[in-house]
Amino acid sequence: MSFRFQFRRGTTAERDASNPILAAGEPAVVLDSGQPAELVLGDGVTAMADLRAAVWDDDARLALADTATQPGDLGTAAAADVGDFATAAQGTLADSATQPGDLGTAAAADAEDFATAEQGAKADTAVQPARLATLRASSLQAWGHSYIDNVVVDGRPDASIALYLADTLGLPLVNHSAGGTTLFTHVGGAAAWPGILQGVTRPNRFVSPGGITLAMYGVNDLNFLGNGVGDLGAFRSALTAAVSRFRAGAIFENDDATVTLTGSWGTNSATTQNSGSSYSYSTTVGDTITITTPADFPGGTIALGFVQWSDGGGALIQTTIGGVEHSFNTASFAEAGFYTCSVMRVPNVPAGAASHVFTVAAVTGGIGAVFDYWQWEPDEADAPLVVLLRQPQPLDYTAYGAIAPGPPTDAGVDALNATISAIAQEFDGRVLAVDTSIINKDPTCWIAGNVHPNSKGHRIMAELASAAIAATGLRVGP
């Protein structure tokens, strides 16, 4: 005996007409011509039309079903590494995390809670942590007078600006400074301009040396030059030459093969008023200095170093490079009675092998043009960092004595600081002029009856220098 069971069935129209409530587990089928059959199971509560249907013979849906993950495909915890699963604590964090649906729209919050288009644009162009440049530095090089020198401050030999800053940067200190240094003159002390030119050397290859140099000069120069901006020409040229040398990536002395001197040049051997072991001089208009850059020259700024003789004379030097004329009068930086230095910086020199002619266009004094060296300065992205500390105003200046046209004055310190800032602006963002006026005449920052800061003053100036370095966005590292 055979039996045939048939489910309740009908068309969609018939179902909708009666829309019965099926008993719990009672099946029913909707059969429409040309359409897949739909099977529903009753729950004893819901009308048939509202029950969820299973559709048969829908090829597209069956194909999806074939590729869907089946329960048997899922691994158990035992079948995988325990480390692949979240801990209970991690699961709790996930449960409490903000879900996408929890995020509001701009319309749901106050407008001021959102960045403006301008602020967004600034954020897009801001330096991100992963994109910070690293400044290669194996030490902090320090140059200057007694403020930088490792003098005993408050009875503490460890309380100088340079030591504080080196400790903050995590770098060893190499201190070249000397108390009483006057930068502009060749007899200004071991850290004056000849000491810098002799002490900062580079190989003849075009590679940035990296590094950080801290320098502080000028208050002693006011004693000899005067307290006005117009009095400080020799100091300005010496500090410009010092900064250029601190930044130099390659240095070529006057007798290097890249230098050709044409005309009646003479040569003098010396080490106390020049770079290298000699300098060349000419009093003849029309004599030339030819700098031949080699094939591996990367382009950029070259700087020619000159010395001004003690007779106050000098020379007008002219060149044309890349269609741009450049003139430089060394006599503008001469100071009678002293040997001074200057540097002619020429930017945008083309890369590669080329010959660049510098002509002596005029001379004054008995020596005229005194050529010392030429050097290459790396572009800003690769240049060393030079930190120039501006001079704070001490409580008084009586310790300097009555050296004419000194001693320094508050107005002289202001003129000095304006000069230092102007020099920094001649270079790029890797030369910083740090304002230290926060300790001006603050009795808590100075040694009583002295022109030197105490340990607090030194620490504050070091913190100002550190903050200026941090503001560049550079990461100091090997």
Please describe the topology of this protein.
Blueprint: E1 8-10, H1 12-18, E2 27-30, E3 38-41, E4 54-55, H2 59-67, H3 88-96, H4 117-125, E5 134-136, E6 140-144, H5 161-169, E7 173-175, H6 193-199, E8 212-216, H7 219-225, H8 233-247, E9 250-253, E10 259-262, E11 266-269, E12 278-282, E13 288-293, E14 300-308, E15 314-321, E16 324-329, E17 340-349, E18 354-364, E19 369-377, E20 385-389, H9 410-426, E21 431-434, H10 455-471, E22 475-477
Parallel strand pairs: 1-2, 5-22, 6-7, 6-8, 8-20, 20-21
Antiparallel strand pairs: 2-3, 3-4, 9-19, 10-13, 11-12, 12-19, 13-18, 14-17, 14-19, 15-16, 15-18
Helix pairs in contact: 5-10
In brief:
The protein has helices at 12-18, 59-67, 88-96, 117-125, 161-169, 193-199, 219-225, 233-247, 410-426, 455-471, and strands at 8-10, 27-30, 38-41, 54-55, 134-136, 140-144, 173-175, 212-216, 250-253, 259-262, 266-269, 278-282, 288-293, 300-308, 314-321, 324-329, 340-349, 354-364, 369-377, 385-389, 431-434, 475-477.
